[in-house]
Amino acid sequence: MTANYWESSQALQWKLTQEELEENRKEDLKYITEREYWHLTYYCCNVAFKIGRTMQLRQRIIATALTYFKRFYARNSYRGSEPLLVLTTCIYVATKIEEYPLHIKNVVDEAKNVIGEKLFKFDCANVAEFEFYLMEEMDFYLIVHHSYRTLTKLMLDLKLPVSSIQQAWWITNDIYRTDIPLLYPPHIIAVTIIFIVGVLIPDANKYKDKIKEWFIGLNVDMNEIVELSQEIINFYELWTDYSDRNIYGILKKLRASSSSDNNNNSNKIATDKKK
């Protein structure tokens, strides 16, 4: 593992662009709406956080798992895979990489409890089989740099109130529901969250001059900070529209379209053989 983000696989291989992500989503958007796509994504992220809470996992483990999940779907479609199997495998692998290994059965059982057997029809063998495929899709680059440590250090240096540190952690957790960790370096995410929290904290005016002076001394592109701030605000606006009521229907549509392709391919093979 490299302690330097700029020399890491995350910076060199896994820092993506919005255009790359949008290009890969085109396959799914032939069969479901963009709204349905994001509802399915948010649902999977919610499941990860629930599993993390019930299993008392460190937040970093879930952040790593969701980074794996996002990386996988930067190259693959929901339609061509089983997102809930992918998610469960991501959590299982993340517990190993973050040095909190759990028995595969414990992770699978908790996924069943949280998701329910109507949607989750996988077992330990499925997760074990998919584990290698998941790592291969990520080119075996499994170390993830997060913004938590940088965020906490900077906020303590600024001597902001404890309540604002908690608020900053909540925003950081929410960011893993989005593509932001694939698009921006961890230190930019941390600084942007401080920028946002500096406006939201109680008695914000009391800290305004201190935060302003601190930002002046930073070697960061403020246009990038403002741009990312807007992306985070946009996420919260989309979040107000979220509903998990139709997740089964969304998955059913994706599976039906995939099955239709498989049937068409089988018919084509059978026809070719007759010829």
UniProtKB/TrEMBL annotation:
GO terms for molecular function: cyclin-dependent protein serine/threonine kinase regulator activity; RNA polymerase II core promoter sequence-specific DNA binding. The keyword Transmembrane helix applies. Signal peptide: none annotated. Residues 22-142 form the Cyclin N-terminal domain. Pfam families: Cyclin_N. GO terms for biological process: cellular response to heat; meiotic cell cycle; negative regulation of transcription by RNA polymerase II; positive regulation of transcription by galactose; positive regulation of transcription by RNA polymerase II. It comes from the Eukaryota. Keywords: Activator, Cyclin, Membrane, Nucleus, Repressor, Transcription, Transcription regulation, Transmembrane, Transmembrane helix. This is G1/S-specific cyclin-C.
